Amino acid sequence: MQVRKKLLMLLCTLLLTILCCGVGYADAHPACTGGEQHEFESHILILNSEESEGQVENVCTLCGYTYIEYLPATGHHYGDWKVVEERPESGIRIERRECQGCHREEVRTVRIEPPSPESDSTQEDEPGINRLDLALSASIGGVWVCTIAALWYNSLVLNWYKRESVKALKRR
After folding, report:
1. Do residues 120 and 105 touch, judged by C-beta distance below 8 A?
2. pLDDT in tens, 20-48
3. Are 90 and 116 in contact, with CB atoms under 8 Å apart?
4. Cβ–Cβ under 8 Å, residues 91 and 109
5. Per-position DSSP letters for 19-45, written without gaps between them
6. d(CA 84, CA 86)
7. Is the pLDDT assigned to residue 142 strictly greater than 50?
8. From CA 9, how far away is CA 4, in angstroms rounded?
């Protein structure tokens, strides 16, 4: 019951905080002296890009109230990696991707396994056990072993209880 009261108090405090912050946020602009509400005209000071934030100046045409709004950086939007060059003899592959907005490029080098000459197609077709199958079968086996052990232990306890009950009845 005590935990329930504490959780209710925490929830009420959180709700009150959200309501107070919401009212404070909604009333962030002072009242317009030139009319009922502000009529803003926006001017871009700094244009935002992928790497830098932008700034927009908002000026009320009625009373002259001004504030600056900060626009977050948009970030790069890269496409998929595309193979530029592959060198199997040295075991590397060079890949490139490009930002769709500003066409900035990124290049990376990926290590690849050189093809082995003794690789056969018959080896790939043969079914085998992978690590996930091994872990799954081991965990299922562990569950069975634990279940059997618990049942065995319970039967020992039950048999002991029966023997003690019979002894107690004989003593009466």
Report:
1. no
2. 555 444 446 678 887 788 888 999 888 88
3. no
4. no
5. HHHHHHHHT-SPPPSSSSS--EEEEEE
6. 7
7. yes
8. 9
Contact indicator for 54, 60 with CB cutoff of 8 Å: no
With contact defined as beta carbons under 8 Å apart, do 77 and 100 qualify?
yes
Structure tokens at 40: 């803003």
Dmax of the chain from CA atoms?
A: 103
By CB atoms closer than 10 A (0-12, 13-18, 19+), residue 158 is exposed
Three-state DSSP at 145 gives helix
Q: Which residues have a Cβ under 8 Å from the Cβ of 79 and sit 6 or more positions away?
A: 97, 98, 100
Write down the residue that tokens 């890949």 correspond to: 95
Token match 């005209």: residue? 41
Report the C-alpha dihedral over residues 9, 14, 16, 22, rounded to 10 degrees. -170
